[in-house]
Design brief:
The complex is a heterodimer of chains A (about 130) and B (about 325). By secondary structure, chain A is α+β, with helices and mostly antiparallel strands. Chain A is built from 5 helices and 3 strands; from the N terminus they run ααααβαββ. The longest helix of chain A has 18 residues. Chain B is globular, with a radius of gyration of 20 Å. The mean pLDDT of chain B is about 90. The chains are: A alpha+beta (about 130), B mainly beta (about 325).
Chain lengths: ~130, ~325
């Protein structure tokens, strides 16, 4: 009887300590051959998938600096807005605000910034923002 | 072309649009074990079904998509398994999926094999249920239909295995299951799949009560001139989110080990061994979300003329990516 009580006590403690993971690893999902299974994770955002999708220009929220080839691939086909030329920090802030406001008017459901490119010339800079409406 | 380059070539050949919904995945699983086999003891490094694969789908019409999976096994320990090839085929298929269900063809696990679901707690290790049970077939030239996801939690699967030989009967494998997060009940049958004349029926159950999972499997095998039963029970206890204890025990009185063998003068048939048993205990510790450190002890016995009394004690690392 004492042994049974100990087992029940350990089970109660493990109930409190155990939290099931919501995300099934992709390899386990593939192994199950369950073609109707809904993916419980966005595998594009981590590990090998993030690298593959970055290389082939798919959506990525990594924000990390990368080669010009990756940047060109990442922005291909996306909408963009170019700021008026600016030459001071204040003009940069104002120009960026104007761009974001204009994008907001085009994307009433919201938008996500994909890339920012700065286009220099001898006397000023222009900012080119690539975005995707939600 | 070297098979080692196959996955790279396939990935490069896919059009960029195909990557709209593609997942690259894999697993590296290696264990160091003390193997006591046939009276000899040795320490060995073993790669346990390490693999890499890609899977995905492409919508081709409203509610209709093409799905695919290419998965290859590699031997992390010495790279010389699989007949010297760096990669060996695992589950590979191409299919069409719509509201009426999924049709797919390729080289993959039969519905009978897939029906084991998650009850095999020592899957791909020495304690794998394939050690003593029948029906664990990854078939070539298999065409399968799966009922649509709208029928969930019920799923029915039926597969036709073409032997591509007029002199050999083609096989049929089918399963029916009820699957939720807390309970799974399944039934499956194989006819002439593992070999001509080998018929198997299997029933499986899995139950979760909080952190405890219990599993049970029963199957009966008929090889024409003999038949036998087998069972397996398993238990997993998640003491915490990171640490689990597990145990498994199974017996069968008929394990098929050979096909198209001369079993009597002028008689070709199936060879089997009797009175098989396996017992495994182990523990898993999660070092991270994707990495598990595990330990196990497995004993496998066969009591007939091909006597086997093997023991394995090992520790391993499993990385999923």
């Amino acid at each position: 009887m004492k042994s049974l009580n100990r087992v029940i006590l350990i089970w109660l403690v493990s109930v409190a300590c155990y939290a099931e993971e919501a995300c099934v690893p992709a390899v386990d999902l593939a192994d199950s051959l369950n073609v109707n299974a809904k993916q419980s994770c966005d595998y594009k955002q981590s590990g090998l998938n993030r690298i593959v999708h970055n290389l082939f220009g798919r959506d990525s929220s990594s924000g990390s600096s990368s080669s010009a080839r990756v940047n060109a691939a990442a922005t291909a086909g996306l909408a963009s807005q170019i700021s008026p030329p600016f030459s001071t920090a204040g003009e940069l802030a104002e120009g960026r605000y104007i761009l974001l406001r204009n994008i907001g008017l085009k994307c009433p459901q919201g938008f996500r910034l994909v890339d920012e490119q700065y286009l220099p010339s001898p006397e000023h800079l222009r900012l080119n923002i690539f975005y995707k409406c939600l | 072309m070297k098979k080692a380059l196959l996955p790279v070539v396939i990935t490069a050949a896919l059009p960029l649009t195909a990557l709209a919904d593609v997942t690259v995945y894999g697993k590296a699983n290696v264990s160091l074990q003390n193997a006591d086999e046939a009276g000899d003891t040795k320490i060995e490094l073993v790669s346990n079904a390490s693999r890499i694969g890609i899977k995905g789908g492409e919508e081709i019409a409203e509610g209709f998509k093409v799905i695919y999976q290419f998965e290859y096994q590699t031997e992390v320990d010495d790279g010389s398994g699989n007949n010297g090839q760096t990669f060996a085929q695992r589950n590979i298929y191409l299919g069409l999926q719509g509201k009426a269900g999924t049709v797919m063809g390729g080289h993959f696990d039969t519905p009978m094999k897939a029906a084991q679901e998650k009850i095999d707690l020592f899957n791909d290790l020495e304690g794998d249920i394939a050690t003593i049970l029948n029906g664990e077939t990854r078939a070539s030239n298999i065409v399968q239909y799966v009922t649509p996801g709208a029928f969930s939690p019920f799923t029915a699967t039926v597969a036709y295995v073409t032997k591509e030989n007029d002199d050999v009967d083609n096989g049929v494998s089918a399963s029916f299951g009820y699957n939720t997060s807390v309970m799974y009940l399944g039934a499956a049958m194989d006819q002439d799949v593992q070999a001509e004349g080998v018929d198997i029926i299997r029933a499986v159950g899995r139950f979760k009560v909080g952190p405890v999972q219990l599993g049970a499997l029963y199957e009966t095998t008929d090889v024409g001139y003999a038949d036998g039963d087998g069972f397996l029970v398993s238990a997993l206890w998640n003491l915490t989110s990171d640490f689990a204890l597990k145990a498994q025990y199974g017996e069968t009185d008929l394990k098929v080990i050979g096909y198209n063998v001369l079993v009597a003068p002028e008689v070709i048939g199936t060879v089997f061994v009797e009175d098989n048993a396996t017992m495994s205990v182990g523990a898993d510790y999660k070092l991270s979300t994707n990495t598990t450190l595990y330990g196990y002890y497995t004993a496998v016995e066969t009591a007939d003329s091909m006597a086997r009394d093997d023991n394995y004690l090992g520790i391993g690392l499993d990385l999923k990516f």
